[in-house]
Write a structure and sequence with these properties.
53% helix; alpha/beta; Rossmann fold
Amino acid sequence: MRSGFASYPQVNFEDLIQQIETSLPSLPRQEAKLAQFMLLNLNTLGLETGKSLAEKVGVPEVTVGRLLRRLGCNGMKELKELLRQRYSVAGEMPDPRGDVRPAWEKTMEAETAIVAAIFHQTTSPDWVRAAKMLTETDRVFVTGFQSVRGLAEDFARRLSLARPSVQYLSPHDGMLGEWLVPNDPASESSCLVLVDVVPYAAESESLAKLAKKQGRSCIVLSDEYCHWSRDVADSALYAPSNTGLFLESTVGLNLALSLLVDSVAESDPENSQARLVQWKKTSRRMRLF
């Protein structure tokens, strides 16, 4: 997807440049001077402030904000975010042979291998089933225990921006009150996404089996040591975790969860983008960020 949480851009960097080029002939004189300067200095825009731009072009500082808003960009802060996104995604990658602590050289190789393993897994039948369930199921419950509870909660919040009816399920806190109403497949389908890692919470397998017994589909995302998910879940996804660190790596889990959110968003881009725009407007109004 083109825009996300980090800030609030409604366009991407390339859209903005195209908008400047298209609008240039019809812009007021001062805004046109500023727009022309921006087009000629794209590589150094990230170093500028609204004040420095205005001084270099010889226009009032208010002209900078006026032009950016006209172009669909909410001021210099959003312009900086567009630049950050553009160069963090499309910019040159650092040389992997650069300076790394000797003790972490093998860890870096292992972590890189995890990233590749997750991307390769996205073409597997289990991944395709998981993406389909997350897209088509009426209601999604997400849970995780102990050290990965935070990852599960974060995934639930992110997924709720891409689609409706997503809820974090905390069996300990809510005592499964959310599941007391008998599940009627004819009226509503539901899916449980369970995130867990070794040594595995005692209730993980039991909760997955309960979900299946109640007629819910089940996706389990775990590390490579999980011995039970394949027998229980409709979709069993694995994120390797052994990279030589003091505690097992969660890089694979994070990446897999992010890609699942993106898969859901891509299934209905018009709706997911509308939800994201609505969320941004609401959060602005509430001054949450």
